[in-house]
Fold this sequence. Notes:
The structure holds 2 protein chains of 2 kinds. By secondary structure, chain A is α+β, with helices and mostly antiparallel strands. Chain A is 17% helix and 36% strand. Chain A contains 2 helices and 5 strands. The two termini of chain A are 16 Å apart. In chain B, strand 4, helix 3 (113-126) and strand 5 (130-135) form a beta-alpha-beta unit. Chain B contains 28 helices and 11 strands. The longest helix of chain B is centred in the middle third of the chain and has 44 residues, at 314-357. In chain B, the strands form 3 sheets. Chain B has a 6-stranded mixed sheet with strand order 2-3-1-4-5-7, sandwiched between helices. Chain B has a two-stranded antiparallel ribbon with strand order 6-8. A two-stranded antiparallel ribbon of chain B has the order 10-11. Chain B folds into 3 domains: 16-181, P-loop containing nucleotide triphosphate hydrolases (Rossmann fold), CATH 3.40.50; 195-286, Helix Hairpins (Orthogonal Bundle); 314-520 and 536-705, no CATH class. Chain B has helices at 39-47, 87-99, 113-126, 137-142, 149-156, 172-181, 195-212, 218-226, 230-239, 247-262, 267-286, 299-308, 314-357, 362-400, 403-416, 423-432, 434-440, 447-456, 466-478, 483-514, 536-571, 579-593, 598-606, 614-622, 633-642, 647-658, 664-674, 677-705, and strands at residues 28-33, 64-68, 71-75, 103-109, 130-135, 145-147, 160-162, 290-292, 525-527, 573-574, 577-578. The interface between A and B is large, with 35 and 44 residues.
Amino acid sequence: MLKQRTLSDIDIGGRAVVERLRIHGSMRRRMLDLGLVPGTAVECVGKSPSGDPKAFLIRGAVIAIRSEDSREIIVR
Amino acid sequence: MGLTAASTGAAAQDKGACLRRRTPEERIIAIAGNPNVGKSTLFNALTGMNQHTGNWAGKTVALAQGRYKGHIMVDLPGTYSLLPHSAEEEVARSFICLEKPDLCIVVCDAACLERSMNLVLQVTEICPRTIVCVNLMDEAKRKGIRIDLELLSYRLGVPVCGTSARDRKTLAALTATIDRSADKDLSPRRIQYTAPIETAVAVLEPVIKRELHLKQEARFLALRLLEGDAAIVEEAAKKAGASRLPEEVIQAAERGREMLAAEGLTADRLRDTLVSCIIRNAEDVCRGAVNYHSTDHLQRDRRADRILTSRAFGYPIMILLLLAVFWLTITGANYPSQLLSEGLFFLGDRLSELITAAGAPEWLRGIIVDGAYKVLAWVVSVMLPPMAIFFPMFTLLEDSGYLPRIAYNLDRPFKRCSACGKQALTMAMGFGCNAAGVVGCRIIDSRRERLIAMLTNSFVPCNGRFPTIISLISMFFIGAAGGLFGSVISALLLTSVILLGIGMTFVTSKLLSATILKGEPSSFTLELPPYRRPQFGKVIVRSMLDRTLFVLGRAAAVAAPAGIVIWLMANVTVDGATLLAHCTQFLDPFARLLGLDGVILMAFILGLPANEIVVPIIIMAYMAQGSITELDIAGMRELFVDNGWTWVTAACTILFSLMHWPCSTTILTVKKEAGGVKWAVISAVLPTFIGMAVCFVFAQLAGMFV
């Protein structure tokens, strides 16, 4: 089976659309509050000096997300 | 970053919200909004209260209150939603739901209106009397975003005003709307959930209304009960006079949940569906009302970020900025400090003559002039100039939006220590005041990570310790090298000391998460707000008045009585020696092991209420007559050397100043914020133990080689 593409695979300048979230509990809620619901367009706009976290443009705001979390957001 | 009269020092301890209407006509107006949308700027503009505002997510940690045309205005902590994650978000929800403000103003960011709309819809669900304030219109305009306020207002069913809170002129429409809406009933748009949810709510809502005599918030509470969040409902029930949740409500909630489960909506699925519904509704509200005319409006910010957070320059720029701030502080403070010192000591001599001429006894003159006045003069002349330079510069960095980038840059190292990147922000607050830094830890979601941030906050030297470190550096490590060269070396050394403190923060964080605070780093999201040009004039005035004078006032309030106590200790003789001598002799053998002496250790102990007075105590103890005469750097060095100081003593004193018990206010704040004496004790013992260990090793090693 093909590995699913996740938000952490998107590099600077790359765009994607959220398909589903694999995380649960309060982090899921946090992501949803930021507007990361299925169908939301996301763009990676930067990386911190060590490459993680990355910054994503989500509904007009720039949000930094760590790779452990962005790995759980399936995109297409 | 609230380093203000209301957030530093003793006032940093949250007294909690206590609102009481003084007259029946008085209204309570709450200001809610996402973090970093200019909520506090707006609050200041409306209330005229000097509450400080900053440019990063989550800075309003306690509830600020002000008065607006005879009404009480409350600035709630920034929150993305009323389904809270962190302690401070919960404050916002509880306030709106339980305190029942008469009017809510929801401040939105014009540049990401859709997300703000989320919160608007949730607030109107509880409090129908709501005004939407679309702020940062100027910024949005520059980014090519057009917003149809009338269309928004029509769709939401509540008034919508556009403002640029930094420009007072744009507030007229808002104040007019507030005045008009204070008592008007509105029927805002209701969030439409999916059919199964609406059916379940229809079962539960009337029961809550009937049993708890609640009206507007019943729908919101019904939804919370359905998703299994009973805490807020129980609180609301208590507020409504019921001792606990009525059986009828519990049964109805059970029925509702069964109905939902039958539709496949288990707790997790239900939650997702609720949030998705809210977001869909927000999208519907904004559709066509928000128009983007250029898609590359974030280009400038991204170019800046590409440099400031890059692999090659990210860390060096941070260190250079730190260095620059310290260099400017040291250089700029040098001359005014000297001038102040000369002036104040001249006045002291005149005061002394005056008292003698008035025929007062010598001991009274001693207490007033040599005790209280001279310690006060020392604290003012040494502290005021660096603070007056440091605080505004810090505020400029804060205003510009650079601080969240520091947290972004440092998240990885903090994660390595199983801590949270936001700890970088609380650390930065610690530079101003450790107590404020500890309160600031509320922005961290996980309790474990919040405790780590609180316990390690005192490893960054607060403003009370800077002057001590700076003056010791210039006394013992700059020597004859004056001028530019000397000041650059001073700044370099000070930066190294700070970097050591930051290093110790990482080491201790790691240590804590490997021992008493075991756990994995939790997840982390941080908003990187747009860069904004700082408002220079306002920043300087505000940070001068609000921070500098306040912190100085606090120091002075401690310094004067401390001066009296020390003068008495140095002048009251028991068994042929002064009290001070007895104490310092007792401490001396132990202090020597740490590369200090009894006097220095005693000074740190007496400095518990405020670190600012450590050096004046040392000076006073060394002077035979037990008071300070006017001393420049060279004179102080001579005095210290005569009392057996070497560069090793100075280095150990600097190290100990960086790492010892925090001031009493900070310790009390930890007790309150962490909820336990245990944590307060650890916050004092941990840095002390580490400081003593470092000083011991340093002194012994230096003893071997020198």
